[in-house]
Amino acid sequence: MSELDVLQAILSAAFLAGILRVTTPILLPALGGLISELAGVINIALEGTMLVAAFTGVVVSAYTGSPWLGLLAAMLASLLFAFLLAFFHLNLKTDLILTGLALNLLASSGTIFLLFTLTGDKGSSSRLASLTLPALDVPALASVPVLGPILNGHNLIVYLAFGLVPLVWILIYRTPYGMHLRAAGAHPEAAASAGLNVRRIRYSALLLSGLLAGLGGVYMGMGYLQLFQRDMTAGRGFIALAAVFMGRRHPVGTMLAALLFGVAEALANQLGNLRIPPQWVQMIPYLATVLALAIYAGVQQRRTTQRATRLPGGPAT
Fold first, then answer.
1. Between the N and C ends of the chain, which has fewer C-beta atoms within 10 Å?
2. 66, 138, 152, 259, 260 from 16: Cα distances, Å
3. CATH number at residue 223
4. How far apart are CA 49 and CA 233, in angstroms?
C-alpha cells in the first residue's frame, strides 16, 4: 500500500469509525478510573480487571452458547476482582498501588494458566467457539449524510461507552451520591465528621470502577475481537488512567483524552500497512500517552506558577 493510499484511508469514514471502536476499551475503564479517583482510591488494577472480564466472557459464552451469559459472568468476575482490591486496601490496609499491581500480575498469569488448562494453548482461545455481542444497525442513523457511515453499525458496547459519559457526569455532579463521592476523595476526615461512611463510599467507587473496566474487557473479547488473547489489553488500563488525569478528572475531558489515544492507536493500525518496522508503529499509542502526559504536566506546572505569582508574597516576576 502506497503513502497516498494510506492518506486516503485516514481521511475516510471507515477510519473515523475505527477511532470509535478502538477508543471504547480505553474510555470505559477511564470512566471507572475517574469514579474511583474522585473517591480517593485510584484503581491501578484496571488492566487486570479488563483481562479477567475478557477471559471470563469469552470462555462462558463458548461453553454456554450465549453471549449474554458471557457478559453477565464477565461482569460478576470484574466485580469480584474489584472487591478484592477494595477488601485488601480498605479492610486489611494494604498499600493501594502495590495491591493493584499485584492483582494485575495475578490476572495476567492466572488467565494464561486457565487458558492453557482449558484449551492447551497459552496464546489464544481460538479453539473455543466463543460468541460476540450484537452490533446495532439503525437505518435512520445510517441515512444521515457524512455521519451515518461513521456512527452506525457499531457493537452494542461502543454505544454504551459513549452513552455512559453524560450518565457519569450526572452521577458525579447532580446526585447526592456524587457529592458524597467527591467529599470522600477531597476531604475524607471532614466527610466522616459529617456522618458519611467513607469506607463504604470508597467500596462502592471501586466496585463501579471494576464494573466499567469489565465492560471494556468484555468488548475486547466479544466485540473488538471474537477470542481471548494473552495479555490482550496491552496496557489499555494504564492508558485509561492517563486519560483520567489528561481529562482533568472530568467525564467529558476524560472522553476527549480517550479519543486522543484512540486516534493514536487507529493511526498506528493504519500505518502498519506501510513499509515501516512494526516496532515503530506499535510505539505510537504509548509514545502519544507519554507526550500527552508530559505536555499536561508542563501546563499544570505553568498554571501553578502563575497562580503563585498572583498571591501576596508570591515569587517576584
1. C
2. 31, 18, 12, 11, 12
3. 1.10.3470
4. 10
Kindly report the pTM of this predicted structure. Answer: 0.88
Q: How confident is the model at residue 159 (pLDDT cuts 50, 70, 90)?
A: very high
Reference 39, options 177, 167, 157; nearest CA is 177
* Residue 107 covered by a domain: yes
Residue 155: beta bridge partners? 135
Label residue 92 exposed, middle or buried (CB < 10 Å: 0-12, 13-18, 19+).
exposed
* DSSP bridge partners of 229: 124
Instruction: Output the nine-digit C-alpha cell for 213.
Output: 473496566
User: By C-alpha distance, which of 292, 233, 220, 223 is closest to 258?
Assistant: 292
Cβ-Cβ contacts under 8 Å for 27 (sequence gap 6 or more):
161, 162, 165, 216, 240, 243, 254, 255, 258, 259, 262
Would you say residue 185 has pLDDT above 50?
A: yes
Host domain of residue 273: 3-133+155-308
Sign of the CA dihedral running 255, 179, 170, 29: positive
Helix, strand, coil percentages in the chain from 3-state DSSP, rounded to 5: 75, 0, 25
Residue 315 is assigned to a structural domain of this protein? no
- Note the pLDDT tens digit of each residue in 258-286: 998 888 888 877 776 666 666 666 677 77
* Distance from C-alpha of 164 to C-alpha of 161, rounded to nearest angstrom: 5
- CA nearest 288: which of 26, 73, 78, 6? 26
Q: Specify the residue for cell string 471507572.
A: 32
In a domain? residue 138: no
- Average predicted confidence (pLDDT) for the chain: 88
Could you tell me the CA-to-CA distances from 202 to 51, 99, 166, 175, 183 in Å, in that order? 23, 15, 22, 16, 11
Domain count, the chain: 1
| pLDDT tens track for 200-252 | 999 999 999 999 999 999 999 999 889 999 999 988 999 999 899 888 899 99
- Residue 185 in domain: yes
When pLDDT is averaged across residues 122-144 and rounded to a whole number, the result is 86
